[in-house]
Amino acid sequence: ELMQIQKYESILEVACGAGFLAREFQEHYKYVGVDYSESIIDKHKKMFPDHEVYVAEANSLPFDDASFDNVFCFGLFQYLPNKKYADQVLSEIQRVAKKTVFLGDLKNEKTRTEHFVYSVDKLKNQGYEISSCLYDYKNSSSLVRFNAMRNIGDNNEAS
User: Fold this and answer.
1) pLDDT at position 137
2) Within 10 Å of residue 121's Cβ, how many Cβ atoms?
3) Phi and psi, residue 70, nearest 5°
4) HEC states along 68-132?
5) 96 phi and psi angles, rounded to 5 deg
6) Does the pLDDT of residue 143 top 90, yes or no?
7) For the chain, percent helix, then strand, then coil, each to nearest 5?
8) CB-based contacts of 144: which residues, under 8 Å, 6+ apart?
9) Nearest-angstrom CA–CA distance, 71 and 10
10) Is 78 exposed, middle or buried, given 0-12, 13-18 or 19+ CB atoms closer than 10 A?
11) Which residues of 25-56 are buried (b: 16+ CB within 10 A; e: fewer)?
12) What angle do CA 84, 5, 106 make, to 5 degrees?
């Protein structure tokens, strides 16, 4: 709903895993997923044989510019190795998006020492709107987990 995805629009899910969220796009959408894990992609293909899924790194997507109406990833950023890689991922998902980009379940602070945190301010400076994540259990004004969405529209420029 936030992305205002219309029937028959194309969707790319980066870090699609075995298809937990992909199952929501089984009908009326052109769904494509990528994940770095070949074994996870194999599992996804078995569970959802109609989905088009590929093994690919999030910072090097094998698609042309503006290939998908909507691009989203959920729960990925905390597992990225560093800011340089995260910037490359943002650049790539913005490059292949025509309409919207949605980043779900980002963390504003580490909940484990190995987690990566991408700055809320940096996302805002790139045109992302910030919203509460479903998993943000704190009842405070500071978000521990959040979502970020950017309308690409006619201005498909990776920042």
Assistant:
1) 54
2) 9
3) -135, 140
4) EEEEEEECCHHHCCCHHHHHHHHHHHHHHEEEEEEEEEEECCCCCCCCCCCCHHHHHHCCCEEEE
5) -90, -5
6) no
7) 25, 30, 50
8) 107, 108, 109, 111, 136, 137, 138
9) 9
10) middle
11) beeebebbbbbeeeebbebbbeebeebebeeb
12) 30
Rg of the chain taking only CA atoms, in angstroms: 15
Give the pLDDT of residue 159. 38
Pick from 88, 15, 5, 90: nearest CA to 53: 15
CA distances from 156 to 81, 93, 98, 151 (A): 26, 10, 6, 9
Mean pLDDT of 80-97: 95
Tokens at residue 76, please? 């990925």
One-letter amino acid of 58: A
